[in-house]
Amino acid sequence: MAQKREIVETVCESRKLARVTKLLSELPQSGDRDLLLEALPSAVDCNGGRHPFQSQVLMMTGEALKKVHSAAVKTREGYVAHAAEAKSNSDTVAETFAACKQQQDAAALERDSCAAQALAAEEAHANAEYEQSRSEAARSRILDERSKMEGEKANSEKFLEGRWEGMEVSVVQEQLTAVGAEPALIAAVPGALAVQPDQRGAFDALTTNALTACLSERAKTVDSLLSKNQAEERNASSFALGAWAFADVAKNQAVASAEKVTEAEKSLASVAAELNTCSANVTTQEKLLQAALAEEAQANDYVQQLDSGLEELQHVLEQDTVQPVAAVVAVPQLVVETVEVPAVVPVLAKSEDLPSLTVISPESISIGGC
């Protein structure tokens, strides 16, 4: 007995058509809708069979919901397309962002490489200038030594071949001191020169011979040093010329490397700015994606509510019996349009590129006349 009561209560509960009533109440207000809402409770009877006019009310309700269902399905299709386009746009901006990131990494590596090359060029330039300075200093020292030796040679020529005879003793001693003669020789010179050549003894002859030999030997030494100095000066000049050319090339390379660093910095800054723009686009498309997903979910939910309402109404029509009037009236069958709901795929789209879509809401639907 208790089980029978439970079954009767379940059937009566299904006849209340709560989902259908809710869907009708959410539709835009009109005379037809109000008529259906007012007649629907009377069309559902848990105490026995149903009058054919009650069935007609239920059929009219079903037709109204099917119209809403069809419009909602079309609207949902629009949002599905909207979401697909948003997905395409999202993938595009994501790929663009990834490409920009790779370009930024490549630009950063190029900048670092240019900076390293510029540093090496600066060091090479500094070394080249140092070597150039050393070569110039060496050449200058060699020229100074030559100038001194040439002066000494010009000064010593008047003392050669015995021309020191008849000179003042102090002048001869100064020359001997300048060429680095032995102090004993320098001390003996005054005594030897004080005696006439034909009256000089063995010691004086030895002194004058030593004087002549010292001056001649120094003159030969100076000539030899001058020859060596000239060879050194030629080598120093060649080295200085090469160092100057190397320093000039190194300078040009350093300048060119510095310019490359500047260009690399500009390129990196440009790519970084483009990356910021791509990042902003990704954020914008993500927001559009979330909005599109929310709209699609709302459309899916509304279609599912309509499906549930139509199933509820069909269940009542199938379970109840109709009271006979003049003839048996067959219970009409509501055909519920079944539309497969596509899986929700996260997508992004630019709002300005999308067609204008209107979400089906209960207020936007008008029911035809009864």
Description:
The chain is mainly α and 370 residues long. The protein folds into 2 domains: 13-104 and 276-364, no CATH class; 118-262. It has 7 helices and no strands. It has helices spanning 2-15, 18-25, 31-43, 52-156, 169-179, 183-193, 202-319. Helix 2 (18-25) packs across helix 7 and helix 5 (169-179) runs antiparallel to helix 6. The chain is rod-shaped. Mean pLDDT is 77; it is low at 1-14 and 322-370.
- Helix percentage: over 70%
* Alpha-beta classification: mainly alpha
Overall pLDDT? 77
| Overall structural domain count | 2
Instruction: Provide a count of the helices.
Output: 7
What does the main sheet amount to? none
Shape: rod-shaped
Uncertain residue segments: 1-14, 322-370
Proportion of residues in β-strands: under 5%
Number of strands: 0
Radius of gyration: 59 Å
Element order, helices and strands? HHHHHHH
What is the end-to-end distance? Answer: 42 Å
Question: Quick gist of this model?
Answer:
The protein has helices spanning 2-15, 18-25, 31-43, 52-156, 169-179, 183-193, 202-319. The chain is mainly α and 370 residues long. The protein folds into two domains: 13-104 and 276-364, no CATH class; 118-262.
Any chance you could write out the topology, listing elements then pairs?
Elements: H1 2-15, H2 18-25, H3 31-43, H4 52-156, H5 169-179, H6 183-193, H7 202-319
Helix pairs in contact: 2-7, 3-4, 4-7, 5-6, 6-7
Keywords:
370 residues, mainly alpha, 2 domains, 7 helices, 76% helix
